[in-house]
Design brief:
Methanol Dehydrogenase, Chain A, mainly beta
Length: about 425
C-alpha cells in the first residue's frame, strides 16, 4: 500500500476515524479503513437509505459526523454549499454566493474540505470560501481574481479541492505572476506564493520524499508538468518535465518512499517515476511508461499491483477503442496483467477501496459494482443499477463525481441526484 500521507499534518481537527472529510477521503487516496461491508447484493440491489435532489453538476460529498457537505450550483446564478443530515439526506442549511456565467460542462466542481469548526470550498469561477459550521455563514470569502488580477480561470472552471496542510490553505490562482499560494486558513491572509506554473484541473496532494513533506501538483506549465512545493514556505522543491498532459485532471499518487505514479487522459498515458533526495535537491527519473491512462480518478495500489479505469475521451466512442480500456491491472514493474476492455467498460466513473473490495461507480450509467482486486483476473462480486438508468443506452450520463464512504454508507452522485447506499452487513 502507498505510504501514509501524514494525516495529522493535513488537518488539526479531531475528526472521527470513519469520516470522509475531504476529496478522496481521510488519507487522500480514496481508501477507507472501514470493515464489515457486504460482498454481494440482494436480487433487487442494495438498500437505498435516501435520495436527495440536486442541481446539475459534478461536486462530490464530504462527511463529518452526522453531516454531509456538498458543493452545488444553480447554472448562471450562484454557487452553493449544502449541509445535509447524514441519516435522512434532508437539508440542514445552505450557503449561497452569486456567480455569473457558466463553464463548459455546467455545474458544480470540487469537494469541500471539512474541519471541526469550518468548511472550505472553491467555486467554479475561483471564489474561495471558509464557512463557519455553527452559523452556516462565511468567516471569509476571497475571489482569486480580486486578490490576483492576473488569475486565469481554467478551461472548465476551477475544479480543485481545498487542501489544508497544518494551518495553511493551498489555493491556485493560475496567474502569470502567481501560480500557487498558501493562505492562513483562519483569516485568508496570504502567507506565500509562487510564480507561473500554468494551469490544471488536478488537485494538489501531499507526499513525502526523502523525509520532506511536500505538495505535488500536475500542471501544464512550461517549467515542468510536475511541480513540488514546501507547504510552509512555498519554496519550489523540484519540477520535472518527464510527464506532461495537456489537460491534467488525475492527481499524482505516491506508491512508496521513492515512487510516484502519474496518469491522465487525452492520450497522455501513465508513467512510474523515481523521486529521490540527492543532497539538498531531488532527482526525478523515469522507471517505466504505458500508453494507458485514467482521465479523472486516481489509481489504487493494492497488494503490489496497480488498478485503474483506463478510460478517456479517445477510447470511449467506438467498440474497437473501448476494448483497449476498462479496469486494468499492472504489476509495479509496468507489465499489464489484465484488462476488462468493453466488458465492462465502466466509463470515467469514480472508485474507492474499502474492506478488501474495489467499489466502482460506472461513469456512463451509474451502475454500482463491487470487485475483488486480484492480479489473476477481473472478479466481479456484485453489481446493481442503483440509479435506475438504461444500461443499454449509448449516451454517457456523466456519473463522474467522486464517491464518499462513512459508517458503511456510500454516497453516490449523478448529475442531479445524490444516493445514500447501505453497504453494511
Amino acid at each position: 500500500m502507498r505510504l501514509p500521507l501524514l494525516l495529522a499534518a493535513l488537518t488539526t481537527a479531531a475528526l472521527a476515524a470513519n469520516d470522509w472529510p475531504r476529496f478522496l477521503g481521510p488519507k487522500g487516496d480514496a481508501t477507507s479503513s472501514e470493515s464489515g461491508l457486504i460482498k454481494s447484493f440482494p436480487k433487487d440491489g442494495p438498500k437505498i437509505e435516501w435520495t436527495a435532489e440536486l442541481e446539475g453538476g459534478f461536486g462530490g460529498a464530504a462527511i463529518s459526523g452526522d453531516e454531509i457537505f456538498l458543493g452545488d450550483r444553480v447554472e448562471q446564478e450562484k454557487d452553493m454549499l449544502l449541509c445535509l443530515d447524514f441519516k435522512t439526506g434532508k437539508e440542514k442549511w445552505r450557503y449561497e454566493s452569486e456567480s455569473e456565467g457558466e463553464p463548459s460542462f455546467p455545474g458544480s466542481r470540487s469537494v469541500p474540505t471539512v474541519e471541526d469548526d469550518a468548511v472550505y470550498f472553491l467555486g467554479s469561477f475561483g471564489e474561495v470560501f471558509r464557512i463557519n459550521r455553527k452559523t452556516g455563514k462565511a468567516d471569509w470569502k476571497i475571489k482569486l481574481s480580486d486578490r490576483y488580477p492576473d488569475a486565469t480561470t481554467p478551461k472548465w472552471g476551477y475544479a480543485q479541492c481545498a487542501l489544508i496542510v497544518g494551518d495553511t490553505l493551498i489555493v491556485m490562482p493560475f496567474g502569470k505572476n502567481t501560480g500557487i499560494a498558501g493562505w492562513d486558513k483562519k483569516t485568508g491572509a496570504e502567507l506565500w506564493k509562487s510564480g507561473d506554473i500554468g494551469n490544471t484541473h488536478s488537485s494538489p496532494t501531499v507526499a513525502n520524499f526523502g523525509g520532506t513533506e511536500q505538495i505535488i501538483l500536475l500542471t501544464t506549465g512550461n517549467e515542468g508538468g510536475l511541480n513540488s512545493f514546501d507547504p510552509k514556505s512555498g519554496k519550489n522543491l523540484w519540477s520535472s518535465q518527464l510527464y506532461k498532459n495537456r489537460i491534467p485532471i488525475t492527481i499524482p499518487v505516491q506508491l512508496s518512499e521513492d515512487r510516484l505514479f502519474v496518469s491522465g487522459g487525452y492520450d497522455g498515458g501513465s508513467k512510474m517515476l523515481s523521486v529521490k533526495r540527492s543532497g539538498d535537491s531531488f532527482r526525478v527519473s523515469e522507471l517505466w511508461t504505458t500508453k494507458k491512462g485514467t482521465q479523472i480518478h486516481p489509481p489504487f495500489v493494492i497488494g503490489n499491483h496497480l488498478y485503474f479505469l483506463a478510460n478517456e475521451n479517445s477510447n470511449h466512442k467506438t467498440a474497437t477503442r473501448r476494448k483497449k480500456g476498462g479496469l486494468v491491472c499492472y504489476n509495479l514493474e509496468g507489465k499489464e496483467l489484465w484488462s476488462t476492455g468493453n466488458d465492462p467498460f465502466m466509463g470515467r466513473g469514480a472508485s474507492l477501496y474499502a474492506d478488501g473490495t474495489l467499489i466502482i461507480q460506472d461513469g456512463e450509467n451509474g451502475i454500482l459494482r463491487l470487485v475483488d482486486p486480484s492480479p489473476k483476473g477481473f472478479k466481479l462480486l456484485a453489481q446493481a443499477n442503483v440509479f435506475g438508468t438504461d444500461p443499454k443506452s449509448k449516451k454517457d450520463l456523466r456519473y463522474w463525481s467522486p464517491m464518499a464512504l462513512s459508517k458503511g454508507k456510500l454516497l453516490m452522485r449523478g448529475q442531479r441526484k445524490l444516493l445514500c447506499v447501505d453497504l453494511k452487513k
